[in-house]
Amino acid sequence: MASNSHRMVIIGLDGMPYHLIKDLAGSGVMPNTGAIIENGVFSQMESSIPEISSVAWSSVITGTNPGQHGIFGFTDVPDGTYRLSFPNFSDIKTLPFWNHEGNGKAIIINVPFTYPARSLDGVLIAGFVALDLKRATYPSSLIQTLNEMDYQIDVDSSKAHRSLDLFLKDLDKTLKARIAAYHYLWNEENWQTFMLVFTGTDRLAHFLWDAYEDESHRYHSAFLDHLHQIDNVIGEIASRMNTGDSLLILSDHGFELSQSDIYVNFFLTQEGFLKFRDTPPKSLADIDQGTKAFALDPARIYVNLEGKYPRGSVKSEDKETIISELETCLNSLEIDGKKAIKRICRKEDIYHGPHLGHAPDLVLLGNKGFDFKSGLKATKLAGNREVVGVEIIKASEVLKEVIEPVRRKIRV
User: Fold this and answer.
1) pLDDT per residue over 54-110, tens digit each?
2) Ramachandran area for residue 69 (φ above 0: left; ψ -120 to 50: alpha; else beta)
3) What is the phi/psi pair of residue 34, to 5°?
4) Whole-angstrom Cα distance, residue 81 to residue 77?
5) 3-state secondary structure 278-342
6) By C-alpha distance, which of 385, 31, 53, 396 is closest to 199?
7) Closest residue by Cα to residue 369 from 334, 400, 332, 326
8) How far apart are CA 75 and CA 83, in angstroms?
9) What's the rounded Cα separation, in Å, for the pair 20 and 208?
10) What is this structure's pTM?
């Protein structure tokens, strides 16, 4: 590969919180990352709102907020319907940085929410959620090489529900193929920007966050070993940088332990804001007259405006009153004496741009230990479950209730 001056290398560590990197870099599990921190700038950033991969990575690659790029979650409800849709890369309204003129050839590997792959000056291998390696890869001439590497887009997270040993084996297999793709493209292409995202870090945290926190956990060493392998790649990349190159390492969101699920639509039903024609409802299409608000994952609340939705019951002049009532009710929400919501965000306070009108009216940020869900068939407000890792402000996108519908229905 010819040497270009002032190249940019971006390494993404999906779902890696600041404190975890700090801990592992300092303890010797990630020594190469530690050396980079010592000689660079290391700081804690705020993620997108909500802090989920689709929104965060769309913001990272476009440099814009959701009101500009138009992605507010893994799911959406188009105006004039109650139909659940699944946005993808084609729905991003602003260009990613690699499509701007003058930025040179880019190699983009495994960035979430870049499916289906679009043409660029360079190479793009889309990350989660992607259904088909052929449509995830540009140019198509690379597909045969990836198949020879046994490249797979994502870990088969369903294995974690059957056997954590099988899950870890698949995690390791996926990582090795990802590294092989990086090696090949680093050497074969004359690039100006190289972006590589590791998403196994997110999958590991979803299912084994407690293994990180508990040193006696059966899989504690496996958790650390996966991060150590990634650190080896980080060290290798750092050693291959030229004078004048820049290295940026970032994450899209953090993680924490979750001990209780909060079913937002159940709460809205309980408080009289949401009504269904059938019980239990089959989908949002069962929303009935008199509904004032409904929720989408992870905790996005939409006022059921007249003229915007088929059975919209709130007049535009009454919208502020409904939002104030929602804020009052939500602020009082407690589970076992603990306040569930840390902050209620109005869209005008967190978003700006031409797509503000399509944004959720409220987004809830939870206190530690609470995982918000929008499932329609819940029979109680909250439920305790086995402690697992969840994204901070939270959408467990690899869990069955999200990933399987997305894989079936995503618009391509």
Assistant:
1) 999 999 999 999 999 999 999 999 999 999 999 999 999 999 999 998 889 999 999
2) alpha
3) -60, -40
4) 7
5) CCCCCCHHHECCCCCEEEECCCEEEECEECCECCCCECHHHHHHHHHHHHHHHHCCEECCEECEE
6) 53
7) 334
8) 10
9) 14
10) 0.89
Q: Are 335 and 343 in contact (CB under 8 A)?
A: no
334/228 Cα distance (integer angstroms):
40
What CA–CA distance (Å, rounded) separates 165 from 199?
A: 18
Beta bridge partners of 9: 194, 247
Residue 94: name the closest of 351, 353, 347 by CA.
353
d(CA 25, CA 69): 34
Question: How far is Cα 321 from Cα 125, in angstroms, rounded to an integer?
Answer: 47
Burial class (CB in 10 A: 0-12, 13-18, 19+), 1: exposed
> For residues 273 and 22, what is the distance between their CA atoms, to the nearest angstrom?
43
Vertex 155 angle, CA 10 and 407, to 5°? 100
Token duo for residue 258: 């979750």
Task: Indicate the pairing of strand 370-373 with strand 382-391.
Answer: unpaired
Amino acid code (one letter) for 107:
I
d(CA 61, CA 5): 22
The predicted model gives 142-161 an average pLDDT of 93
Mapped to the 3 state alphabet, what secondary structure does 109-134 carry?
Answer: ECCCCCCCCCCCCEEEECCCCCCCCC
Alpha-carbon distances of 229 from 121, 127, 161, 175, rounded to whole Å: 30, 20, 24, 9
CA-to-CA separations, 156 to 173, 211, 331, in angstroms, rounded:
11, 19, 38
Contacts of 264 (CB under 8 A, 6+ apart): 295, 299, 301, 364, 372, 373, 374
How far is C-alpha 210 from the geometric centre of its chain's CA atoms? 20
Average pLDDT over residues 219-226: 97
- pLDDT greater than 70 at residue 154: yes
- Enter the tokens of residue 262: 């909060």
**Cα 104 from Cα 85, distance rounded (Å):** 34
Which two three-digit tokens encode residue 142?
């690379």
In 3D space, the residue among 237, 244, 266 whose CA is nearest the CA of residue 379 turns out to be 266
